[in-house]
Amino acid sequence: MKYGAVGDGISDDTSAFQKTWDSACNGSSKMGSVYVPSGKAFLLNSLHFRGPCKSKPLLFTMDGKMKAQSDPNKWQKGENGIIPWLIFERVEGLVISGRGLLDGQGKGWWDIHCRDHPGPNCIWLAPTMMTFSNCRNVILKSLRFRNSAQSHVLVMGSQNVHIKDIKIKSPEVSPNTDGVHITSSSAVFITHSDFATGDDCVSIGDQVHDLSVTFVNCGPGHGVSVGSLGRGGTEVAVEDIRVAHVNFTGTTNGARIKTWPGGTGYVRGIEFFDIRFASVQNPIIIDQFYGCAPNCVQTEKAVHIEKVKYMKMSGTSRTEVAMKLECSGKNACSKVFMRDIDLSPANGIDSVTSLCSFVQGSTQGTIRPSSCIVSIQ
């Protein structure tokens, strides 16, 4: 409140927050701090929290409520279009924590999104709630996020990011409201968190390695997705991804890998372990024809998917094909391993089956429904 923030939920406190950050980041003390007090609601437009900072670590404690500007017509725009809401850039040693709530007030954006409201004035892109760009050694914990205009948390070009004990909630019908999206980053760890979204709970983009998603609840939403990758023929490099101890409830997908036809590069070293499904539409899915349905054709190139493990997975599918592994005939999925899979039909489904195209690998233990992987000894 030192720099003139009002905190009544009506007054625009953007300038006060920017001044507070600049002071904490460039101050003379070894440790900088920003405190958002409880009992207050702060209305904010786009904020760019730039580093590098003199202060390390920098503590950003949110115990109050932060509200995004709800009117798309009042949102700031940059040279490249819509500016995200809260951007942390080139910050090292950042700890964001507290008991507070970040409210994206995204309904105004959802109501003009082209997916559900096509027309000359519709939009595809909307502000991301919280972005970490080229940051290192970040901890994000204990906060609540709701109703983002688009993705809730974006991690890009960053290393050693720990996300834990957060809760993200947006309506199931809200467009493109990913929980956490990661791209061009390494050593990212997401744990003990709850996601209810209109898109992927966690989505893993290109140029990502050494990432884990553990002890997470997902639903509603589109599952935990590696991809989509390879759009426009781009070269992909994704490896060493672990998804473990996850509960999927009522999601459209569970453990998903999705690539576009025509891409190149690789997805490898992916492990799904100790997963529970409750009435999930596509519990286990590899889709190498993403974005081209219903008129897909084989392309000369495809992202190579290899060394994928599915272990200790059980629950119910609300579609007949509980395991769908559709790989490219030009670059078959290889070294796919399954162990102890037990999927049964949800209410209203008589039975479940598996479907495979160009999948090579091996199985161990009980596999239900029966595996369709081509065994390679």
From TrEMBL:
Kindly name one Pfam family recorded for this protein.
Glyco_hydro_28
Source organism: Raphanus sativus
GO biological-process terms attached to the record: carbohydrate metabolic process; cell wall organization
> Which terms are listed as keywords in the entry?
Cell wall, Cell wall biogenesis/degradation, Glycosidase, Hydrolase, Secreted
Q: Does the keyword Ribonucleoprotein apply?
A: no
Q: What gene name is given for the protein in this entry?
A: LOC108830486
- Provide the protein's localization: Secreted, Cell wall
Listed name of the protein: Probable polygalacturonase At3g15720
Give the family per the record: Belongs to the glycosyl hydrolase 28 family.
A molecular function GO annotation: polygalacturonase activity
Principal subcellular localization: secreted
